[in-house]
Amino acid sequence: METIVQSASIAGVPLLLGALAVLVASRAGVLNLAVEGLMLVGAFVGAAVAAAALGDGLAFAAALAAGGIVGLGLGWVMVVARADQVVVGVAFNILMLGLTGYAFGVITSDSRNALNAGQPTRAALPGLSEIPGIGPLFDMHWIAYVAFVLVPIISFVLFRTG
Known about the structure:
By secondary structure, this protein is mainly α. The protein has helices spanning about 1-25, 35-50, 55-80, 85-105, 140-160; strands at about 125, 140. It is built from five helices and two strands; from the N terminus they run ααααββα.
């Protein structure tokens, strides 16, 4: 049971981060259907940086930077060029799926382990990680803790501030 709880909570972290991003964008009046493509680009760049043994923190920063840069281009197309948000979002997702799939094939053509970043380091919270049943929720990567802390922060910012 503990493995299921931990696996589900870890697998949900990228979805949670994407959902929070879409929530903020939609409250700002932007229909961001391209969030999957942005996450795909960030995940690919993060995996490449982590596989180069540059560390989890630098991989996370590179993933954020890659998503931000591609997102700026996407925002320019939607806002400045006034392209339809739905069409651009769907086309962007398809484009990023193709580009990252192609880049993955090129990088891993010689070795299937070329993008192997190993197991992520975990940060167990002392005392809490030993609780039966829910202990695995307190033995995760630091990004998971950041994602869970962002939920009340974003809720406060969106619904309690101007």
